[in-house]
Amino acid sequence: MAIALNPAHHSMPGYANLREKAVELEGVFLNTLVSEMFKGLETDSMFGGGYAEETWRGMMAEQYAAEMAQAGGIGIADQMVAALIETQAAQDSAPQLSSMGAYR
Protein backbone atom coordinates (compact mmCIF):
# COMPACT_ATOMS: atom_id res chain seq x y z
CA MET A 1 0.00 0.00 0.00
CA ALA A 2 1.55 3.30 -1.09
CA ILE A 3 1.56 6.27 1.24
CA ALA A 4 -0.19 9.44 0.23
CA LEU A 5 1.88 12.55 -0.24
CA ASN A 6 1.32 15.21 2.35
CA PRO A 7 2.66 18.76 2.66
CA ALA A 8 5.45 17.56 4.98
CA HIS A 9 6.98 15.63 2.08
CA HIS A 10 7.47 18.88 0.15
CA SER A 11 10.05 20.06 2.70
CA MET A 12 12.10 16.86 2.55
CA PRO A 13 15.66 17.23 1.25
CA GLY A 14 15.76 16.37 -2.44
CA TYR A 15 11.97 16.36 -2.86
CA ALA A 16 11.99 19.00 -5.62
CA ASN A 17 14.57 17.07 -7.64
CA LEU A 18 12.72 13.78 -7.10
CA ARG A 19 9.44 15.36 -8.18
CA GLU A 20 11.06 16.94 -11.26
CA LYS A 21 12.50 13.61 -12.41
CA ALA A 22 9.21 11.80 -11.79
CA VAL A 23 7.32 14.38 -13.89
CA GLU A 24 9.97 14.08 -16.61
CA LEU A 25 9.57 10.28 -16.66
CA GLU A 26 5.79 10.62 -16.81
CA GLY A 27 6.30 12.96 -19.78
CA VAL A 28 8.33 10.27 -21.57
CA PHE A 29 5.54 7.76 -20.97
CA LEU A 30 2.88 10.21 -22.18
CA ASN A 31 5.00 10.98 -25.26
CA THR A 32 4.86 7.30 -26.18
CA LEU A 33 1.07 7.28 -25.78
CA VAL A 34 0.54 10.49 -27.76
CA SER A 35 2.92 9.37 -30.52
CA GLU A 36 1.00 6.12 -30.90
CA MET A 37 -2.26 8.05 -30.99
CA PHE A 38 -0.96 10.26 -33.80
CA LYS A 39 0.12 7.25 -35.86
CA GLY A 40 -3.52 6.36 -36.35
CA LEU A 41 -4.44 9.70 -37.94
CA GLU A 42 -4.88 9.83 -41.68
CA THR A 43 -3.26 12.85 -43.32
CA ASP A 44 -3.76 12.30 -47.03
CA SER A 45 -5.64 15.56 -47.52
CA MET A 46 -4.51 18.44 -49.70
CA PHE A 47 -2.16 19.90 -47.06
CA GLY A 48 -1.28 16.75 -45.12
CA GLY A 49 1.35 14.07 -45.28
CA GLY A 50 4.99 14.09 -46.25
CA TYR A 51 8.32 14.07 -44.47
CA ALA A 52 7.85 17.49 -42.86
CA GLU A 53 4.64 16.42 -41.20
CA GLU A 54 6.30 13.31 -39.78
CA THR A 55 9.08 15.47 -38.35
CA TRP A 56 6.78 18.08 -36.81
CA ARG A 57 4.28 15.50 -35.59
CA GLY A 58 6.95 13.93 -33.36
CA MET A 59 7.88 17.33 -31.94
CA MET A 60 4.23 18.18 -31.36
CA ALA A 61 3.66 14.87 -29.53
CA GLU A 62 6.68 15.59 -27.34
CA GLN A 63 5.40 19.06 -26.44
CA TYR A 64 1.86 17.82 -25.76
CA ALA A 65 3.25 15.13 -23.46
CA ALA A 66 5.50 17.56 -21.58
CA GLU A 67 2.62 20.00 -21.06
CA MET A 68 0.30 17.23 -19.86
CA ALA A 69 2.92 15.98 -17.39
CA GLN A 70 3.56 19.51 -16.07
CA ALA A 71 -0.19 20.07 -15.67
CA GLY A 72 -0.54 17.01 -13.43
CA GLY A 73 -0.42 14.21 -15.95
CA ILE A 74 -2.30 11.03 -15.23
CA GLY A 75 -0.92 10.44 -11.75
CA ILE A 76 2.16 8.39 -12.54
CA ALA A 77 4.59 10.97 -11.12
CA ASP A 78 2.61 11.19 -7.85
CA GLN A 79 2.65 7.41 -7.49
CA MET A 80 6.39 7.21 -8.20
CA VAL A 81 7.23 9.92 -5.67
CA ALA A 82 5.05 8.31 -2.99
CA ALA A 83 6.57 4.88 -3.62
CA LEU A 84 10.12 6.25 -3.49
CA ILE A 85 9.42 8.13 -0.25
CA GLU A 86 7.88 4.99 1.25
CA THR A 87 10.88 2.90 0.17
CA GLN A 88 13.32 5.39 1.63
CA ALA A 89 11.38 5.54 4.91
CA ALA A 90 11.46 1.74 5.13
CA GLN A 91 15.20 1.71 4.52
CA ASP A 92 15.78 4.42 7.13
CA SER A 93 13.83 2.46 9.76
CA ALA A 94 15.41 -0.93 8.97
CA PRO A 95 18.23 -2.06 11.23
CA GLN A 96 21.64 -1.45 9.70
CA LEU A 97 23.35 -4.82 9.35
CA SER A 98 26.91 -5.35 8.35
CA SER A 99 29.11 -8.36 7.83
CA MET A 100 30.92 -7.45 11.05
CA GLY A 101 27.78 -8.16 13.04
CA ALA A 102 28.00 -11.82 12.15
CA TYR A 103 31.36 -12.20 13.87
CA ARG A 104 30.70 -10.47 17.17
End-to-end distance: 37 Å
Radius of gyration, whole Å: 21 Å
Q: What can be said about the biggest beta sheet?
A: none
Helix- and strand-based class?
A: mainly alpha
Notes on the structure:
InterPro entries: Flagellar_prot_FlgJ_N (IPR019301). This is Flagellar protein FlgJ N-terminal domain-containing protein. It comes from Pelagibacterium halotolerans (strain DSM 22347 / JCM 15775 / CGMCC 1.7692 / B2). Residues 36-81 form the Flagellar protein FlgJ N-terminal domain. This protein is mainly alpha-helical. It has a domain at 14-83. 61% of the residues lie in helices and 0% in strands. The protein is built from three helices and no strands. The chain has helices spanning 15-39, 51-70, 76-93. α1 packs antiparallel against α2 and α1 packs antiparallel against α3. The longest helix is centred in the first third of the chain and has 25 residues, at 15-39. The model has no long low-confidence stretch (mean pLDDT 81).
